[in-house]
Amino acid sequence: MTLFSLARKNIARNFSQYFLYIASMVFSIVIYFTFVTLKYSDTIAEKTASSQKLDSLMSGAAVILIFFVAIFIAYSNSFFMKKRKKEVALYALLGVRNRQIGFMLFFENLLLGLVSLVMGVVLGFLCSKGFMTILIHLMGYDVIAPFTFSGSAALNTAIVFLIIFLVTSFQGYRLIYQFKLIDLFHASKKGEAAPKPSMIVAILGVLLIAIGYWLAMQDLFTSKVWQKVGFLMTALIILSTVIVGTFLLFHSVTGFVLAVIKKNEKWLWKGLHIMTISQLLYRIRGNARTLTVIAVLSATTVTAGGAVYGLYYNTNDQVMTADPNTFMYQQTDAKSDQQVSNVLSDTKYDENIKALSVTFNTKELNSASVFDSSDKRIYTVINEKTYNKLAAVQNKEELHVNADNAVILDIGYDKRFSPKYKGKTITTENNSAITFQSFKTQTVLNAGTAGIAVVVSNDQFKVLQKEGEALKYRVIGVDKASTDLSKKIAKQIPEEALFSSAPQDFQRSIEGVGSLLFIGSFLGLVFLAATGSIIYFKVLTEAEEDKSQYNMLHKMGVSAKEMRKSIASQVFVIFFVPLTVGLLHSVVALKAFSSLLMMDLAKPVMIWMIAYTVIYGLYYILTVASYNRIITQNNKTEG
Q1: Read out DSSP for 86-122?
Q2: Residue whose C-alpha is closest to residue 441's, from 318, 530, 328
Q3: Which of 351-379 are b and which e, b meaning 16 or more Cβ less than 10 Å from the residue's Cβ?
Q4: What's the pLDDT at 330?
């Protein structure tokens, strides 16, 4: 029997244990192959306006995926090697030379990689149509993509993953030379060192996380800490304090919590609670490093995915705020207007409005926090009658402006940087003064055409007509307008008409954010698959160690139901404590992100978190079922 055939039989015999590892690798390869295929896709280049930008995004995502998958495969491989050390020791005891054992492990891991690679590329090809259609749909196009097989993508994927598999296979080959025979026999009994909880370490862990949270919640632009320390250094401090604090949390804080629970003797002596708590006291502290990795990965995945989904979710609202009219342009001549009318069919409204472009002395609006500190600003001025006419067709509230007063429509208003408008007075070149009675963060004119608008009383508008440049705008509302209609209208008017189109702006925004959502979602799924797999391998390795304990309980007459309950409780804590910590980290990060963008992300983030938790929960169910199967089979075998 050759070493290669022995390796193949080992894989066949232990396939159920390798299944999740292979599945995670296959999924990673499918995603990588998909990204590279999309990069080379002619369909994407033809259908989207931002194909070059998408190429860069896909390339960047592929690099991140390579880096992460390499770490995941190496990490997972170390678990399998630890589990196989006793088997390796038996080969050595039977007289098989170290070199032959090393080659067997090398072939075995390489064979797993090759099987995964072939399956990944095949599945990637079969799924490419669906993935490409999802991407195009997220980018706002209603197109069904064709099946695409890219030889360049397949070659790229094969080279990258073969290098990764060769490196990890060599890691298995080197294993036999790193340990003595007696170490290999006892390796399965050696876990991570279980440090004793320390009050000082526990307090330090909570303090570090609190410092990281406090820094993250400070305003990026106005915080004195961020300004003095610097952006990069502050970001590094936040990451360092949160990661180290999380490690110390699992190292000591959870140990104290479980120790407190253990003191409740009335509860402790019910069922197998004492065994459950004792096992958890060891495992949470002993696996602090692994649990920290899980918490940080969960936080990263949820934060990145939640932020991008939040942007995608709010894209339509953002465009509607900036473009309340479907189309708007500055009228230049009657001929262009007629050509536009010929293109248009059904409209909700089609209004010609008068406005003024007025230069104001705005020194009084300046302050230390205002980005635009110029003494003169040009505003588009409309009267109260015009505003209310447009507000009526746009389903907005009416506005009443007092004499000599005004209301400014600033959709980009941010209390941190924008002027304090209320009560401030601005004047024209001829000293005609208006005082802002209030401001609104919505407008009735498209910002791309009119910029920041000011609403004055009808009488005040007549006064300002003598000083400002007269403007004529055409504002159009259309149900279910398309980008094709937008392009047709744009061809009928000169470039200086400052044409703005809600469909075009939406398409431009949704393309960028949609491609980010696609990449973020699939990278997030890979991270989630790897995260669930790491815990799965870890818990099942411990299940092998626990077989004798549960068999002893079985012989003592403890029911299978009680043992299943104990197993479910232990695995639940191991799974969901790091998830809870990770979600808490992501809540703080997304709160800071929401404040930075002045955007409500609560609903999309909640949807993203629920989806993540549900998929993560499936790994928990699978792990508990596998753990129970190992214990049940052992109890039947041992009696």
Answers
A1: HHHHHHHHTT--HHHHHHHHHHHHHHHHHHHHHHHHH
A2: 318
A3: bebebbebebbbebbeeeeeeeeeeebeb
A4: 92
Strands (E) in 264-390, as ranges, are 327-330, 349-361, 376-383
d(CA 89, CA 96): 10
CA dihedral 65, 68, 71, 72 (to 10 degrees): -90
User: Which among 547, 593, 596, 589 is positioned nearest to 567, based on CA atoms?
Assistant: 547
Position 344, amino acid:
L
Collect contacts of 261-264 with beta carbons under 8 A, ≥24 apart: none
Say if residue 620 is exposed, middle or buried (CB neighbours under 10 Å; 0-12, 13-18, 19+): buried
Q: How far apart are CA 107 and CA 114, in angstroms?
A: 10
Is residue 193 exposed (0-12), middle (13-18) or buried (19+ Cβ within 10 Å)? exposed
Question: Would you give the DSSP letter of residue 89?
Answer: H
Q: Which residue numbers in the chain have pLDDT < 50?
A: 181-182, 185, 188-194, 269
Token couple for 158: 């094969």
Give the DSSP per-residue string, 342-374.
HH----SEEEEEEEEEEEEE-GGG--TT-S---
Contact 164, 70 (CB under 8 A): yes
**Distance, CA of 297 to CA of 455 (rounded, Å):** 50
DSSP β-ladder status, 405-409 and 453-456: antiparallel
Q: With beta carbons less than 8 A apart as the criterion, state whether 287 and 194 touch.
A: no
Task: Match 């309980």 to its residue by tokens.
Answer: 553
pTM for this structure? 0.74
* SS3 state at 435: strand
Q: At what angle do helices 602-638 and 560-597 cross, to 10 degrees?
A: 160
Q: How far apart are CA 326 and CA 312, in angstroms?
A: 20
Cα(601)–Cα(306) distance, integer angstroms: 8
Q: Are the CB atoms for 348 and 393 separated by under 8 Å?
A: yes
Own/partner contacts of 12-20, CB < 8 Å, gap of 24 or more, are 17/83, 17/540, 18/80, 18/112, 20/533, 20/536, 20/537, 20/622
Residue found by looking up tokens 């095949």 in the block: 122
Per the CB < 8 A criterion, the answer to whether 86 and 179 are in contact is no
CB 435 within 8 A of CB 314: no
C-alpha angle 261/262/264, rounded to 5°? Answer: 75
- pLDDT tens digits, 262-318: 555 555 545 555 556 666 566 665 577 777 888 888 888 888 888 888 888 888 888
| Three-state DSSP class for residue 395 | coil
Distances (CA, A) of 121 to 34, 154, 478, 527: 9, 7, 46, 19
- Cα 148 to Cα 33, 116, 143, 145, distances in angstroms: 11, 20, 15, 8
Neighbours of 462 (CB within 10 A): 11
Q: Residue 406: in which H helix or E strand, if any?
A: strand 405-409
